[in-house]
Amino acid sequence: MSQLFFGYFAGMIAITSILVVALRNPVYSALSLLVMFFHVAGLFITLHAEFLAAVQIIVYAGAILVLYLFVVMILNVTQDDRYHSQWLIAGVVCIPLFIESILLLSGGAGALNTGSPSLQSEPHEAITANNTLAIGKTLFSTYLFPFEVASLVLLVAMIGAIVIAKRDIGEHDA
Amino acid sequence: MTEFGLRLAISLTQIAAVMGIVVITVLILTLAERKVLGWMQDRMGPMEVGPYGILQPVADAIKLFFKEDIIPAGANKFLFTTAPILCLIPSFIGFAVIPWGPNQTFEVGGITVRPFVISDINIGILYILAFASLGAYGIILGGWSSNSKYSLLGGLRSAAQIISYELNVGLSIVGVLILGGSLSLVTITDAQAGGFWHWYLFALPAPQIFAFVIYVISAVAETNRVPFDLPEAESELVAGFFTEYSGLRFAFFFLAEYANMVLVSCVAAALFLGGWNAPYPGTIMAFIGAPSLAWIENTMWFAVKTYSLLFLFFWLRATLPRLRYDQLMRFGWKVLLPIALGNIVVTAIAVFIYQQMK
């Protein structure tokens, strides 16, 4: 049963993420991204990470993607000017990635088998009981420093965005 | 598989019952709103259909059913059809975690049934926030796909407004979550038992009065109601994002708006006003020796609280003029947000000191 769910979610994630870049209408791209976020959240739920699933939908689907859609609608991008000739860069990036994935899939088969017990081990008892509590405790004890650094980086980015957005107004005032 | 079948049957029954109650509530609300507005403006409200106009909602529903369904030329047909559904589903799905009555269980064929909540998931309130935030998609896509400038402007305004005020809704709830120590609405409501001084609106060590006010204001803004109804401001945008909609599709938007009002009122009642708990300790039914009927009293209290909050929506509509767009944004970001953040800090410190003293 769980295999079936995983297959469905993984398959839909793969299909919709291809559609995000393949569809010609940017609004449809944004919508297939929305469907993808939902399936990622579904994947989190099958792993007993309900908190992450909810946060995934609130942050990505509820806030970030709405802003994307907002921009797409205001700009009203036509289909012609979306494709610049970037085939060269795309090729340079994609060929190494493709080779890497081939190497991983062929040579990593043995490594995957040895690695699977740790990935598929039974979920921790505390995590299944109340994973919000578990995440909170881990975040504010073991990973306190990375958490604080991440929040500092976000704060800097936020202030930076405000400074850039308000630059014109400041010049007019001065 | 029979156990699974029974579970499914019970869940479907619960879902049908809740949907039925919500739809009936919406029907009552459409009439109540016009009547209340009428009385507040010294009018009678609708009087033609049935005695005192009480069959008006039925007449409205039939009218909407039989209206011609128009898709404007140049509209994106697929999104134009999907948008009302995208708007309707999030507003109904949140009711799954609302506790309507006491946290009782009984056994049916070896399965434990909780009659007053469809599903008590441990992230209850986050689940509601997650789906509430998706309502914006229906509105902006409806506005964009109509191929009309009024609709587009209404949709964009609504997206900006919902994102801004959703933040305040989320932050105003945090104080309650600190006090309750849980995200499950059932646990939070249970913790508020024993008289109105235990409700989180008044509870020591940190009464959430400011948080409640912020929640109610932001909830009014999130449901696009007066005085925050800029997405459908009829004096400047005809009807906002659903200008081009007619018939059943329009009815879907209408239903979604009212279902959202019911949902935010239910959440406010459950988080701040003690949910189904009576404002006195225990229940009268238990006092006069019929504790098995206490659930009637409790669900009635929940209904009273929800309907009082819904009355507040009508009251605001009859009283306040619409805000200007820049006033709306400034109020949300520069007034409500700092108060909500301050409330979190104060609540956290108060709870910490309270726990140390114990």
Describe the structure in your own words.
The complex is a heterodimer of chains A (174) and B (358). With 174 residues, chain A is mainly α. Chain A contains 9 helices and no strands. Chain A starts with a helix and ends with a helix. Chain B is mainly α and 358 residues long. Chain B has one domain (75-104, 119-357). Chain B is 65% helix and 2% strand. Chain B contains 12 helices and 2 strands. Chain B has a two-stranded antiparallel ribbon. Chains A and B meet through helix 2 and helix 3 of A and helix 4 and helix 5 of B.
Comma- or semicolon-separated keywords:
heterodimer; A: 174 residues; mainly alpha; 83% helix; B: 358 residues; two-stranded antiparallel sheet; 12 helices
Compact overview of the structure:
The complex is a heterodimer of chains A (174) and B (358). Chain A has 174 residues and is mainly alpha-helical.
Please estimate the helix content of chain A. over 70%
Structural class of chain B: mainly alpha
Question: What is the count of β-strands of chain B?
Answer: 2
State the helical fraction of chain B. Answer: 55-70%
Binned strand content of chain B: under 5%
Largest interface by residue count?
A-B, 22 and 27 residues
Distance between the amino and carboxyl termini of chain A:
66 Å
Tell me the number of structural domains of chain B: 1
